[in-house]
Each structure stands twice: as structure tokens, then as C-alpha cells.
Amino acid sequence: MENRRKSAWKGIVLGSLLVLVSISCAEPKAPQPIQNDEIANVISQMTDIMIHDVTNPPLAAKFFAYASLAGMEALSYQEDSLSLLSQKINGYSATVNKIKQPEKYEHRISAVFAMLHTAKKMQPSGSLLEVYEDEFAKRCLALGFDQKIIDQSKAFGIEVSGEILKYAATDNYNKTSGFPKYTPLAAEGSWYPTPPGFFAPVEPYFNTLRPFFLDSASQFKPISPARFSTDKNSPFYKMMEEVYQVELTEEKKLVAAFWDCNPFALEENGHLMIGMKKISPGAHWMGIGNIACKVNQVGFDKAMEINGVLAMSLHDAFMGCWDEKYRSNRIRPETIIRKLIDPNYKPLLQTPPFPEYLSGHSVVSTASAVVLTHYFGENFAYTDTVEVKFGLPTRDFEGFHQAAEEAAISRLYGGIHFMDAITEGQKQGREIGSWTIDKLFSPLSKN
């Protein structure tokens, strides 16, 4: 009996040892993958800093473009399709050098750190992203990545970012600060700063930058705006009356507020002027792009491509629009309506500080809709939650073009644009978006 007990115990001990040996020899558990919401989180963090810094809309698009491009470049070492896309970016291959990869690293971690480091260096208050960097590193640890892998991935991402920052430094933006200060024209019908801030004109030389995909900022130059006239039978005067007489239903007010996206808005509070926290049109569309990626459960690599192409398209759309704004220099509805019709007129939305023609939101929204429709299709239903954190309700759309149409007409409801600036802005946006997609994905596209 005693011998049987000893044999049984020996069997139990031996079995336990075999289990322990088996466990110790098993492959370590693979880390959980990096999800596409990390890209959306970086874009959101960048947007918060843009609000903090009151970053103007064209410059915001520039920041998004280079940060997203850094993420694409970090992934391109493992994803050939991204390398092929980057070859079609103006001046890219001649400036950005490939660097040596670490023996062991996770390229998606590198992509996030490349985005963060680029944003840190480009945005005035970019150092605020350091807290988020630390949080991301901790999340990677929690996903099961080894600290050494995280450190090597971060170091590689920073090196990649350095190449992108070198490329960004050659886009001519740094030269614009040395150009003559822009002075409003004295000619009748020309733009003049508007209340309550009477801000100086924003980015009058943005058209001199190097575009990512366009041949030049003037590639899709629109027709000239309706000629200024005080004749009540003239097309201009009739458009002015259209703005003044627009019937503002509650729905139209909601649409105007939803697409306001004016970082320069001020609110009068007694004798004080308080800045309103609002995002730029580009930030809104970057948010929409990431909503679509989440709804469609797009993989990290594809989501990075979508963010990059969208952001660079936004940049070029602002270039094309701003090129025309400072060429035509047309007066804003608020200014001329007060002079000719109603001295007490106040538009629903505050007038942004730059000339009227073309409508920037019409251009960039339409271009964005073309890009996102390429990736997600014509009838992509989604709920836009981008403005919820700023106190606005969600809105449902059956597709990106429907959203872009609403964004465009919101400028009429808001009292800040004439109708031809909206329709011609949409036309330019379609041309820029289509050019970009054809250049990147058509078999017959030009490099």
C-alpha cells in the first residue's frame, strides 16, 4: 500500500514537472496588434494643440500632411504599396533618404512615433505631445511588446521623422515670413478686415508653397468671380441680396454651426472678447476619415495611407483656394451688405479673416469627399461625431459627397460667402480631388 502511494506521488510530481517544462518551452505569447485608432488619436491630439495655438486652416492642413506622411514613410519599409505612392509626391524621392532599419522593431509603433515626433517639431506647442508619447509607450507594453522593441521602434520612428522634417523644410513656407506684409487693396469691392477682431489676412502667400500632388497652386484656376457692382440689376448685387435675404430655419442654423470650423471666432462678453474653441475644416475632415476607417474596420496600414492621402489633398486644396483668394481679393458679404443695404447687418457666423472668393470649405470638403469616396465608395453611411466634444450634436450622412454639399451651402446660411464662391469652390475641389486620385492610382498617371 505504501509503495503504491509513493508511486502515485512520483507520478504526480513527474507529471507536474513535465507540465512546467512544457510551459517553459512554449513560444512566448504574441503581442496584440496596434489598432488604427492610434492614428486617429494622434490626429485628435494634434487638433487639440491646433485649437490651443489658434492654428489657421491652411497651416493646420500642412501639419496634418507632414505628420501623416511620416507615418506612411515608417510603414513603407514593410509595405511596398506605400513606397510606390510616395514616388508620386512632388520632390519626395530627391529629398527623403531611406535609413537603416533596426534588427527588431514593430513598424506600426514606429509609424505612430514618427507622426508624434513630426507634429512635436512642427506645431508651436508640440511639446505638449510628450505626455501622449509616454502614454502610447505604456499602451504598447500593455499589449505585450518588449520594452527593447518599443525603444528601437521609437528610435526608428524619430529617424524617419527627421527625413520628413528635412523634406518639409524645402517646401518654401519658411520664406513666406520674409515676404512683404499684405495690405488690403483700396479698390472698391476689395476685401477688408471684418469685425469683431479685424484680424490681419491669413496666409496670403500660401500659394507659393510646394504642393504634394498638384503641378502648381494655380493648376485649377477658377473663372473670375462676378464683377463687383452697386447696380441693383447686376449679378453681384443679386448675390448680395441672396445672402441678406436667406431664410434661416432652425435646421439651417444647425447646419451652419456644425460646419463653422472657424478657429478665429470671438464672443463678446461685456467689454471682453473671448476666443471660441473651434477646429479647422481640415481637422473636421481628418476626423471624418478616421470615423470611416473605424466603421469599416480598416487595418492600420491602410488607415495610415488614407490619413496621408487625405491630409496631403487637404493641403493642396488650401493652396488652390488661397491662390484664388488673394488674386480676386473679393469683399465679404458682411462688409458690403452693411454699406449698401443694412448698416446693422450681422451674419450668423463670424466672417473669417481672408478674402471671400473661393469658399475654402467648399473646396476642401469637396476634395476630401472625392478622396474618401475613392477608398470607401459612393454610398458610405456614417454618423459624424467630430463636433460632439465642442458641444454640437451628431449628424448622419449617406455619403461623403452629401456631407461636402452640406458643408458648402453652410457658408451661404452663415452669411459669409456669395453663391458663386460656393459653386466654383466645389468645382475646384472636385478637380483637385480627382487629379490626386488619378495621379496616385490610375495606371496611366504621371509620376
UniProtKB/TrEMBL annotation:
It comes from the Bacteria. Keywords: Signal. InterPro entries: PAP2/HPO (IPR000326), PAP2/HPO_sf (IPR036938), V-haloperoxidase (IPR052559). CDD domains: PAP2_haloperoxidase (cd03398). Residues 1-26 form the signal peptide. Residues 325-425 form the Phosphatidic acid phosphatase type 2/haloperoxidase domain. This is PAP2 superfamily protein.
